[in-house]
Amino acid sequence: MRGALPVLPEEVAAAHQRLYGVCHRTLMFTCSALDREAGCRVLLKGENFQRVGAFKLRGAYNFLAQMKPAERAKGVVAASSGNHGQGVARAARLLGCPATIIVPEDVVPAKREAIERDEAKVIVCGRTSTERLAEADRIAKETGATFVHAFDHPWIVAGQGTTAKEMLEDAPHLDAILVPVGGGGLAAGVAVWAKARNPRIKVFGVEPETAASMRDSLKAGRPVTIPPSDSIADGLRPLSPGRIPFQICAALLDGVFTVSDAEIAEGVRFLLARAKVLVEPSGAAALSAMLHRKYEDPPGTVGVILTGGNADFDVLARILKREI
């Protein structure tokens, strides 16, 4: 572990205990066709089978569970393209906490409906993360609610890192892990745990070519802001990585691969056709990197996280028709 980092392995372990009985211990599975295409053994971590359909419940519940009861009584507010909002809404319902979720104008309908099913208030605001964050900040100040950032908080990062804890317990022989990157919370949490357990393991992020804010930030040596992207991977489009995830990724991440929308779409089709598993475009990013040999000369066994399965059916139809 290089230097003092804002999240420690013991915090990930504590988060895992906190999540016991709340989050599913999602399965790891293989696909021989993917092994052949990737040129190595690939183990897939199916967070698309997680409660709320994505890994985001891990960080959200870990955050809300550590709030004081008086804070929870005032409610929480979150800004999200969808999956983080679902995680916060579910955690809030489980803990008896009012929740308000700010979503973009182009939110996937199924994600909005899922947030509303968990009794959270939904507010539609703009199309960019900057607009949603500003609205969430305004509401938090006006109401006294606690803002739950999607990725830029130690409790969120620690919660997401429990994904790696399970992976390395189930497959301690992993040589590398590939993680989709949006704001960087999952990649940071995975790197904290994985590097502490095995300093030789490689951890790589995967981003859309048109939304590579972590890659560009690592090159610049500081968090940078990129132009808005219209990538089909709606969960991987923050304009800038979080400062806490960036600090951790700058210290521990071994690199970032990028994939095109066409490559992501091929990953969704491949997994559905060959493994009979549905993932949303954001969830397929790391799989797509392996499928298209972005990882040249990979080691013997690589773990790949499928981060979510909350697909937009209109986008999915276009993918299946090969219009993307």
Under CATH at level 1, the class of the largest domain stands as Alpha Beta
Shape: globular
* Strands, count: 10
Helix content: 40-55%
Largest sheet: 6 strands, mixed
Name given to the CATH architecture of the largest domain: 3-Layer(aba) Sandwich
CATH fold-level label of the largest domain: Rossmann fold
Secondary-structure class: alpha/beta
Strand content: 5-15%
Poorly predicted regions = none
Description of the molecule:
The structure is a single chain. This protein is of the alpha/beta class and 324 residues long. The longest helix has 17 residues, at 154-170. It has 2 domains: 9-54 and 154-320, Rossmann fold (3-Layer(aba) Sandwich); 56-147, Rossmann fold. α5 (83-94) links the parallel β3 and β4 (99-103). The chain has helices at residues 9-18, 32-38, 56-65, 69-73, 83-94, 109-117, 129-143, 154-170, 185-197, 213-220, 243-252, 261-275, 285-291, 313-320; strands at 28-29, 41-46, 76-79, 99-103, 121-124, 146-147, 176-180, 202-208, 255-259, 301-306. The model has no long low-confidence stretch (mean pLDDT 96).
Key descriptive features of the protein:
single chain, 324 residues, alpha/beta, Rossmann fold, 2 domains, 6-stranded mixed sheet, 10 strands, 14% strand
Structure summary:
The chain contains 14 helices and ten strands. It has 324 residues and is an alpha/beta fold. It has two domains: 9-54 and 154-320, Rossmann fold (3-Layer(aba) Sandwich); 56-147, Rossmann fold, CATH 3.40.50.
Write the layout of secondary structure elements.
Blueprint: H1 9-18, E1 28-29, H2 32-38, E2 41-46, H3 56-65, H4 69-73, E3 76-79, H5 83-94, E4 99-103, H6 109-117, E5 121-124, H7 129-143, E6 146-147, H8 154-170, E7 176-180, H9 185-197, E8 202-208, H10 213-220, H11 243-252, E9 255-259, H12 261-275, H13 285-291, E10 301-306, H14 313-320
Parallel strand pairs: 2-10, 3-4, 3-6, 4-5, 7-8, 7-10, 8-9
Antiparallel strand pairs: 1-2
